[in-house]
């Protein structure tokens, strides 16, 4: 229990920043019109390539015996990749709506 309290005290400012980012994100997304949700989310998903790069760096720096860091890094790479691919698929589908229809 003491180690948990020490960890919380050590990272207290970072925890506050994350909590504020969560509330800010909810407020920003909540005020976006529904018409803009799809382009906004597809763009945000594509930006998650930064998560993939960060996870690869963490996995590269992790000790070979640190299974927690390796497993979490692998999951971050896997889920980040799925998110990026999903963002591009949604963007592609969205752009298909604006193409001229071919008449037969």
Contiguous helical run count: 5
Strand-and-helix sequence, N→C? Answer: HHHHH
The dominant shape is: flat
The assigned structural class equals mainly alpha
Number of strands: 0
Helix content: over 70%
Overall tally of domains: 2
Residue-averaged pLDDT: 83
Could you provide a short overview of the structure?
The chain is mostly helical and 104 residues long. Helices cover 79% and strands 0% of the residues. It folds into 2 domains: 1-31; 36-96.
Question: How would you sum up this structure, described in words?
Answer:
- This protein has helices at residues 2-10, 12-30, 37-47, 49-61, 67-96.
- It is mainly alpha-helical and 104 residues long.
- Helix 3 (37-47) packs antiparallel against helix 5 and helix 4 (49-61) packs antiparallel against helix 5 (67-96).
- It is flat.
- The chain folds into 2 domains: 1-31; 36-96.
- The longest helix is centred in the C-terminal third of the chain and has 30 residues, at 67-96.
Please give the structural blueprint:
Blueprint lengths: L1 H9 L1 H19 L6 H11 L1 H13 L5 H30 L8
Helix pairs in contact: 3-5, 4-5
């Amino acid at each position: 229990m003491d180690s948990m309290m020490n960890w919380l005290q050590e990272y207290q400012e970072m925890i506050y920043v994350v909590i504020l980012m969560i509330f800010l994100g909810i407020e920003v997304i909540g005020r976006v019109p529904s018409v803009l949700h799809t382009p906004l989310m597809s763009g945000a998903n594509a930006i998650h390539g930064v998560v993939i790069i960060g996870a690869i760096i963490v996995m590269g720096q992790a000790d070979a015996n640190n299974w927690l860091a390796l497993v979490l890094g692998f999951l971050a790479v896997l889920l980040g990749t799925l998110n990026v691919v999903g963002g591009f698929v949604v963007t592609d589908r969205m752009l298909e709506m604006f193409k001229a229809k071919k008449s037969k």
